[in-house]
Amino acid sequence: MADIAPELVFRLLGTWWRVDVESDDAARASATVVARGTLGVADTEATARRRMRDDLVRAAAAAREAHARLLLLQTELGPGDPMSATLTVYDDDRVRMSPAIGTAPERVLGVLEESLPQIAPDLAPTAVRRPFTGGEVVRVHRIEETVEVEDGAEFTQRRLVAQYWYPQPDSKQLVLVVLSTPLGDIPNALLSYFDAIVEVSRFAMPDPA
Questions:
Q1: Which of 16, 36, 45, 59 has the greatest count of CB atoms below 10 A from its CB?
Q2: What 8-state DSSP symbol labels residue 182?
């Protein structure tokens, strides 16, 4: 019987929706639920629902292509308090350190930090350690800028993307969690919010049921 690896568990506040990444059909079904739950079922919101559903299906396809196993969308911090963020977890057997380094989390993270200037030179200067329940992670982040057009006017959209690398317990493998938000104009506040999400996350054995 194959060993069962512990999985990341999150304690999330506010309203979060799961978008299925197994297939386009599964993603479309879950995206439809998200769009209706967020925007309602009024005919006047049909175009907005369709746009949201299509965006989520594309996001799920991109996540699946990158070997994601979980995609969550946040729409509220609390009742009547909107928030836009996504949380994606990637489990990829190719993200594994050299056999020579052992499985000590400190060593695994140390080798990752040493390699960042080669594998991600644009992100390496942002690398910092952050705590989670059970140890530390390495966080890097970037601001993605795109030019959008709304009602005939152009504006710059800034998206904050934060990557958190967790050392898988008793393994050379790293688990990647990506938190992102279109609220990139206030990156420091959002990085603190993302750090708080990571701080209370933990590895736990999956429920056999």
A1: 59
A2: S
- Spell out the residues 6+ positions from residue 35 whose beta carbon is closer than 8 angstroms to its own: 48, 49, 50, 52, 53, 56
CB 140, CB 198: distance < 8 Å? no
Mean pLDDT of 129-158: 88
* DSSP 3-state of 130: strand
Task: With a cut of 60, say whether residue 171 has pLDDT above it.
Answer: yes
Residue 115 reports pLDDT greater than 50: yes
- Residue 94 has what pLDDT? 45
Q: Kindly tell me the sign of the dihedral angle through the C-alpha atoms of 120, 18, 196, 83.
A: positive
The Cα 62–Cα 56 span in angstroms is: 10
Alpha-carbon torsion (8, 17, 127, 192), positive or negative:
negative
Q: Which of 144, 145, 143, 138 is nearest to 124 (CA)?
A: 138
pLDDT at position 97 is 55
Q: What is the DSSP letter of 151?
A: T
Mean of pLDDT values over 179-196: 95
Is the Cβ–Cβ distance between 180 and 86 less than 8 Å? yes
Q: How far is CA 9 from CA 6, 187, 192, 206, in A?
A: 9, 25, 19, 9
3 vs 148: CA distance, rounded Å = 47
